[in-house]
Amino acid sequence: MELELRHLRCLVAIVDSGTFTDAAIELGCSQAAVSRTLLSLERALGARLLHRTSRNIAPTTAGVQVLARARHLLAEAEDLVREVTTGHTRLRIGHAWSAMGRHTKEFQRRWARRQPDVELHLIRTATQTGGLAEGACDLAVVRVGFDSRRYESAIVGHERRYCALATDDPWARRRSVSLAEVRERVLVVDRRTGTTTAELWAPGEGPELERTRDIDDWLAAIATGRCVGITPHGTTTQYRRDGITYRPVRDADPVPVHLVWRRHDPHPATETAVELLTELYREPER
Q: At the top level of CATH, which class does the domain 5-86 belong to?
């Protein structure tokens, strides 16, 4: 027998309602059908799941384990149905680090006014595609390379590069730094989702690199003062931390900001999102 959601739903109904009779009412079937379904589940798993007496019902040790997993699986199934059925009434925009940077709050406000029937969700996923490849979002804000054969994209703006350093670093008293100066320091980079690589310098002339795996580790390393980082402007507005100061890198090329989506399955609100974010990046900084 193959395990089906109806078997798990039956087990949960019995435990939550307390009796086979009440479980049958909740499930809209007969008490005998509830008993048969539970028996089928126990046979499939090879374990007794419930202690049954004339007065009460309680899960066995195996039943407690199965019940916990059953609740999780049923919730996942409900989420899946909800995602498919609500579909275009929600737009999920993923990002790896800093969403839309300084435009994040204004994007959310204007979206609510322009698209009141499409609920906006921003989702942080520490992958190169900001969760797009993993199915976690419908669109993604991407500042690193991606597979242009698989995804469609639009450049919505550019962000200046900044040097992140400890607040007590001597450079914190300066207005800007140069790539040549950074070359003399230890540079911490995110190996998966960061925008900075040794390619900012001529071959063989880059700084010593130290690698981290996410934004929190990156910031923690910089706060010690033993290394610095280079990052787009978006990070400076989304990650203002005690012990961290940002200064412009005056001679580094800006970072292009893309909105990326699945080539063959675009969300209907994609064009609106591209237009709105492009509009925001074109506005002068206040």
A: mainly alpha
Cα atoms in the 13 Å half-sphere on the side-chain side of 72: 6
**Parts of the chain belonging to CATH 1.10.10.10:** 5-86
Which residues contact residue 78 at a Cβ distance below 8 angstroms, ignoring those fewer than 6 apart? none
DSSP 8-state class, residue 228 = B
Fill in the amino acid letter for 215. Answer: I
Query: Which burial class, exposed, middle or buried, applies to 127 when counting CB atoms under 10 A from its CB (0-12, 13-18, 19+)?
Result: middle
Contact 216, 164 (CB under 8 A): no
Query: Which pair of structure tokens corresponds to residue 205?
Result: 């002339």
**Residue 138 to residue 87: CA distance in whole angstroms:** 10
- For the chain, residues classed under CATH 3.40.190.10 are 87-158+256-282, 161-253
pLDDT tens by residue, 229-256: 999 999 999 999 999 999 999 999 999 9
Residue 264 banded pLDDT, cuts 50, 70, 90: confident
pTM: 0.71
* Cβ–Cβ < 8 Å for 57, 50: yes
d(CA 175, CA 257) in angstroms, rounded, equals 25
What CATH architecture does domain 87-158+256-282 belong to? 3-Layer(aba) Sandwich (3.40)
* Homologous superfamily of the 161-253 domain (CATH): Periplasmic binding protein-like II (3.40.190.10)
pLDDT one-digit tens code per residue, 191-201: 888 899 889 99
**Gap between the terminal Cα atoms of the chain:** 65
Token code pair at residue 201: 């310098």
**Nearest to 277, CA basis, from 84, 150, 147, 143:** 143
Distance CA 232, CA 239 (A): 11
pLDDT confidence tier of residue 131, bands split at 50, 70 and 90: very high
